[in-house]
Amino acid sequence: MIHVKELKKTFGVEHALKGIDFEVDKGEVFGLLGPSGSGKTTTIKLLTGEFKSSGGNIEVNGTTDKHFKKTSYVKHLGILSDKTSLYDRLTVGDNLELYRKLYNAPKNVVDEVLGKVGLLEEKGKRVSKLSKGMKQRVMLCKAVLHKPDVLFLDEPTSALDPTTTEKIHEMLEELKNDGTTIMLTTHNMDEATRLCDKVAFLYEGVIKETGSPEDLRHRYKRNEVHLTYEDGGIRTVGRDVENQGLLKEALFDTSVIDIRTDFPTLGEVFKKVTGKELV
Fold it and tell me: Which PROSITE patterns does this one have (predicted)?
């Protein structure tokens, strides 16, 4: 579905992308993770035709980047980026109705998507009266109302509260189950762990590591066990033959209240790979 090979992008003397490779299969959720300035948004803009590459090959949904401006390509995409906008003077419903007609989507789809993000009651409100988080949700509705083949999301839940974020996650999971291929950027490691089939760590224009969240966490775990005692004490022991007896005893020691393996979060793995926090 998405094939990227040796993709490069320069802005003057700045090398934003230094030859990155990745592939996304149909129906997968792929997360591009990295700090601000790492090249995430640039990558999205290259794949949606907003930028032209400085080298390499891109193919999305059977179309190469030479044809990304064609309607036959764009009509199968959904995009949420920093360039996504709404008409402030129109109501929420009127905004989405314009795009529904443009994509010839079913008439009931506007109410359907607004209901999924908890904004059906705001359908008659002018966009200018909405909070930043509400506008974010409406723009997401705009991106998905035609059920695109490929959905590009740049920080889709960055301005949202936890309850609304949960609604968005449920919507994205439903789209995935219906066959939509989703590529997203995020700083939220819990979000990436929950949603993504595969992730890539992008740092200073280079992909440093790639794999499923679960595989990456296993790959970089330390072979240790943490024992927490009822007096608050914590003991760390290695998972090896030398400590086998001690660990067996801990299972039956009533003063041990918690036994936990050293299983890193995705954010901790990112720091281990790049030496930097994912912020």
Answer: ABC_TRANSPORTER_1 (PS00211), ABC_TRANSPORTER_2 (PS50893)
Query: What confidence category does residue 279 fall into, taking pLDDT thresholds of 50, 70 and 90?
Result: low
Residue type, 64: T
- Determine the Cα–Cα distance for residues 25 and 197; give it in Å rounded to an integer: 10
Q: Give phi and psi for 77, each to the nearest 5.
A: -105, 150
Domains of the chain: 2-217 (3.40.50.300), 222-262 (no CATH)
Question: What distance lies between CA 123 and its chain's CA centroid?
Answer: 27
Distance separating alpha carbons of residues 158 and 146, to the nearest angstrom: 23
From CA 248, how far away is CA 250, in angstroms rounded? 5
Q: Which residue has the tokens 């032209």?
A: 52
64-85: burial string, b at 16+ Cβ within 10 Å, e else: ebeebeeeebeebbbbbbeebe
pTM of the model: 0.84
The tens digit of pLDDT for each residue in 186-243 reads 888 889 999 999 999 999 999 999 999 999 988 888 777 878 888 888 888 777 777 7
Distance CA 256, CA 228 (A): 6
Angstrom distance (rounded) from CA 243 to CA 237: 7
Instruction: Give the Cα separation of 81 and 148 in Å (integer).
Output: 15
